[in-house]
Structure formats: structure tokens, C-alpha cells
Design brief:
Blueprint lengths: L2 H10 L6 H7 L8 H11 L17 E5 L2 H13 L5 E4 L10 H12 L14 E4 L8 E3 L2 E2 L5 E2 L3 H18 L4 E5 L16 H13 L6 E3 L1 H5 L3 H4 L10 H17 L2
Parallel strand pairs: 1-2, 1-3, 3-7, 7-8
Antiparallel strand pairs: 4-5, 4-6
Length: 262
């Protein structure tokens, strides 16, 4: 009996049942409960439009974006570009450095997905677009950016080790997902707080060395895409972030590559 006829049957039988009840008791083949999932996300996620709750449409493929503040900036445009083509989720906060990736994603998984959350998300990722690097190359001391007295978060060798673990993790946990790694955008020519000009090049070179061992992972060279537009896209001098035009153009670029993999 199809769903429409089944609903008619329920009505004819005098049985009254709500849509939320259907989701909860698995009448239509899914135990997903939007209210439960939304509340779990509310407790997990940072505030801001990029971190809004996404109610998965089962008719659409599911895209996951993981990254730092650069990816936070272009998430909204990616969603706009892929509207009615995909459910676009992004990680619930700044993804930070490479050593945080696996524990962070595990936290999201055990908070939002079934069987860990009863009534939680019950789908698989179709495309995962991810990046780490900009927080690895920064210099920190006592929790603050400090080039002169600080220590770099991850050496290039440690970064390579962490990225290799990330690739292995993603391929094991999400074997059916198409993976896209985005290179790290540039540190401004005049430098930036806590970061050294040219380090993005070094870390991207290290990343590509790792990715040579994973030919199925596509590379989105966001560094090369963004670099020629620094003067018009940077938000201000000595800052690695981008203005609205830059974020929008990056978002269109990311969405195009994701769409090609759907």
C-alpha cells in the first residue's frame, strides 16, 4: 500500500496521527524526528546564519562542508547556489586546526546521528568538502596570535601526519561520499596577525604531497582561485578574511565543484 492510500486508510479507520508522530514511530520507513534533531543542533551549534539548522529533504543528496572561518564565509552562497539541488550542511563551528578534525566530526556524529540520537539524522553524506590549514600555520602564545613569541600550532610534518589521518578517517567512515579537499587561502603579502606571508604555499605543498596517496579525493585549489583577487576581496590589510564580494565568489566556485560531484 502506498503512502497516499495508507493515509486514506487511516482516515477511514478513524485513526488520527500527526506528521511528527509518523516520523517518531517509523510508519513511513524513517525514525527521523525534526523536533528532536533541531533541539540537539541548537545545543551543539554556534549562532549565525552559516550554522542554521538544515532539515534534510530525503529527495536531495546531502553535502557536508567542514572548514575554518573562510568556509563559514562562503557557506551561505553555497546553499543559495545549490538550493533544490542538495541539502547543504556545514560543521557547527569553526573547524580550527587539523588535529581537531576527527574528534570534532565524531562529536557531531554522536550528537546528531542515529543510533546515537534517537530520532536523529539517518542519512549518509554524498559529498564532503573539507579544509584544514589556516589554523595550523598560525603562531600562538597563551591563546593569542603572536608571531614574535608564539609557537606554530602544527609544523608542516605534523600537518601532513594529521591530514593523512583525516583522509583515512573519511574514507573509512564515509566510503560512498565523494571527497573534495580545498587548499588553504593565502596570508596577505604584508602579513597578518599571527601568520607569516608564504606559509599557505608551504602548507598547501605539504597537503598535496599527502593527497597524492588518495587519488580519489578531488582538490579544489581555492588558493589559486582566490589569490589573483586579493586586493579587491580582502576585508582589510593584515587580515586573512574576505569581504562580501570575495565570500560570494568563493561560494560560487565551491558550489560549482560540489554540483559536478552530485
Amino acid at each position: 500500500m502506498n503512502r497516499r492510500n495508507f493515509v486514506k486508510y487511516l482516515g477511514a479507520s478513524g485513526i488520527v496521527i500527526s506528521a511528527s508522530s509518523c516520523a517518531s514511530i517509523n510508519i513511513f520507513g524513517s525514525s527521523y524526528d525534526e523536533e528532536i534533531s533541531r533541539e540537539a543542533w541548537k545545543k551543539l551549534a554556534n549562532k549565525g546564519v552559516a550554522f542554521k539548522y538544515v532539515d534534510p529533504n530525503k529527495k536531495l543528496p546531502n553535502v557536508f562542508i567542514y572548514g575554518d572561518s573562510i568556509s563559514i564565509g562562503y557557506t551561505t552562497t553555497v546553499r543559495e547556489e545549490l538550493e533544490e539541488k542538495a541539502n547543504v550542511f556545514r560543521f557547527h563551528k569553526n573547524g580550527q586546526s587539523s588535529n581537531k578534525f576527527i574528534p570534532f566530526v565524531e562529536k557531531m556524529k554522536t550528537t546528531m546521528f542515529q543510533p546515537y540520537l534517537k530520532g536523529g539524522w539517518d542519512f549518509d553524506w554524498d559529498v564532503i568538502h573539507f579544509n584544514v590549514g589556516l589554523h595550523d600555520l598560525k603562531y600562538m602564545k597563551s591563546g593569542k596570535l603572536d608571531i614574535e613569541n608564539g609557537k606554530q600550532v602544527s609544523s608542516t610534518e605534523k600537518y601532513k601526519e594529521n591530514l593523512d589521518k583525516i583522509c583515512k578517517y573519511l574514507k573509512k567512515e564515509y566510503p560512498k561520499a565523494k571527497l573534495i579537499f580545498a587548499t588553504t587561502t593565502a596570508v596577505p603579502a604584508e602579513g597578518a596577525d599571527g601568520r607569516v606571508t608564504g606559509d599557505s604555499v608551504k602548507y598547501n605543498k605539504a597537503a598535496l604531497q599527502v593527497l597524492e596517496n588518495y587519488p580519489s579525493i578531488q582538490v579544489n585549489d581555492l588558493y589559486a582561485f582566490t589569490k589573483p583577487h586579493e586586493k579587491e576581496w580582502y576585508i582589510k590589510p593584515h587580515n586573512v578574511h574576505y569581504n562580501e564580494l570575495g565570500k560570494k565568489e568563493q561560494g560560487k566556485h565551491v558550489a560549482k565543484l560540489i554540483a559536478e560531484n552530485l
